[in-house]
């Protein structure tokens, strides 16, 4: 596990997505973490110190693992860059929404015209 | 391990799970480009909920969940997330209506 600064982490994450286009997966884990061991935390608790928590982000493609941490001050910038990367890389997902909508509206039209004709017959 | 079919259920339960045990809960996103599959998982190692999809429209929903978890995890479990999700919902809805009218 290599600890990186947020920006190099995002670059490496992009590389991971590129390496796994033909085969393999990418995992990204988010965790609320103090980045301290349990022993350290217990010591701090006993001493009455405040434990600071931040967001730990880990990523792996099964071969290489990287991680970074973001806090209250920098998570907004990080999450928008992260969203941009995901949008650019997750291109294998199906975009079916539009077709379905057209089909649905076509069906609606057909049903409507049927209704209209049946209404016309009753009159 | 339970796959949840409804996105809204998954969203609600995942936030609940995190808030009930913030120190142990993690949120994992798995993306497999070759199969075009996306799996989201939230677990505290006692309970585990998952959401699976191959639809691009769900990636947008995931973005919202990402933002919620970044906020909760970077700012703490008491952080206000009503705006994180709310803002985007308000933005997304008029856009959808607009597209509908054009057709």
UniProtKB/TrEMBL annotation, chain A:
Keyword RNA-binding set for record: yes
Stretch list, region Disordered: 93-123
Domain of life: Eukaryota
Listed Gene3D superfamilies: Signal recognition particle alu RNA binding heterodimer, srp9/1
Sorted UniProt keywords: Cytoplasm, Ribonucleoprotein, RNA-binding, Signal recognition particle
Biased composition (Basic residues): 93-102
Subcellular location per the Swiss-Prot or TrEMBL entry: Cytoplasm
GO cellular component, as recorded: signal recognition particle, endoplasmic reticulum targeting
GO molecular function ontology, one term from the record: endoplasmic reticulum signal peptide binding
Ranges annotated as biased composition (Basic and acidic residues): 103-115
Keyword Disulfide bond tagged: no
Alphabetical GO biological process terms: SRP-dependent cotranslational protein targeting to membrane
Assembly with partners or alone: Heterodimer with SRP9; binds RNA as heterodimer. Component of a signal recognition particle (SRP) complex that consists of a 7SL RNA molecule of 300 nucleotides and six protein subunits: SRP72, SRP68, SRP54, SRP19, SRP14 and SRP9.
Function description: Component of the signal recognition particle (SRP) complex, a ribonucleoprotein complex that mediates the cotranslational targeting of secretory and membrane proteins to the endoplasmic reticulum (ER). SRP9 together with SRP14 and the Alu portion of the SRP RNA, constitutes the elongation arrest domain of SRP. The complex of SRP9 and SRP14 is required for SRP RNA binding.
Family stated for the protein in its record: Belongs to the SRP14 family.
PANTHER family to which the protein is assigned, alphabetical: SIGNAL RECOGNITION PARTICLE 14 KD PROTEIN
Name recorded for this polypeptide: Signal recognition particle 14 kDa protein
From TrEMBL, chain B:
GO CC terms in record: cytosol; signal recognition particle, endoplasmic reticulum targeting
Localization terms from the record: Cytoplasm
GO biological process, one term: SRP-dependent cotranslational protein targeting to membrane
The organism's place on the tree of life at top rank: Eukaryota
Keywords, alphabetical: Cytoplasm, Ribonucleoprotein, RNA-binding, Signal recognition particle
Chain segments carrying region Disordered: 83-103
Residues covered by the SRP9 domain: 5-66
Listed Pfam families: SRP9-21 (PF05486)
Any one GO MF annotation of this record: 7S RNA binding
Record's function text: Component of the signal recognition particle (SRP) complex, a ribonucleoprotein complex that mediates the cotranslational targeting of secretory and membrane proteins to the endoplasmic reticulum (ER). SRP9 together with SRP14 and the Alu portion of the SRP RNA, constitutes the elongation arrest domain of SRP. The complex of SRP9 and SRP14 is required for SRP RNA binding.
Family: Belongs to the SRP9 family.
Name recorded for this polypeptide: Signal recognition particle 9 kDa protein
């Amino acid at each position: 596990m290599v600890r990186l600064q947020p920006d190099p982490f995002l670059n490496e994450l992009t590389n991971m997505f590129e390496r796994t286009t033909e085969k393999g997966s990418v995992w990204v884990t988010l965790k609320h973490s103090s980045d301290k061991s349990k022993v350290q935390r217990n010591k701090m608790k006993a001493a009455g110190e405040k434990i600071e928590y931040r967001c730990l982000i880990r990523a792996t493609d099964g071969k290489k693992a990287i991680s970074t941490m973001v806090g209250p001050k920098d998570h907004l910038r990080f999450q928008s860059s992260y969203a941009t990367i995901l949008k650019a890389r997750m291109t294998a997902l199906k975009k079916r929404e539009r077709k379905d909508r057209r089909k649905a509206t076509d069906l609606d039209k057909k049903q409507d015209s049927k209704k209209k004709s049946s209404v016309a017959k009753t009159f | 391990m339970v796959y949840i079919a409804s996105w809204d259920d998954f969203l609600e339960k995942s936030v609940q799970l995190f808030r009930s045990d913030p120190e142990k809960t993690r949120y994992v996103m798995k993306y497999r480009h070759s199969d075009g599959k996306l799996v989201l998982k939230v677990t505290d190692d006692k309970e585990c909920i998952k959401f699976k999809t191959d639809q691009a429209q769900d990636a947008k929903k995931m973005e919202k969940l990402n933002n919620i978890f970044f906020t909760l995890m970077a700012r703490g479990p008491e952080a206000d997330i009503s705006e994180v999700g709310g803002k985007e919902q308000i933005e997304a809805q008029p856009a959808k209506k607009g597209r509908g009218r054009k057709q």
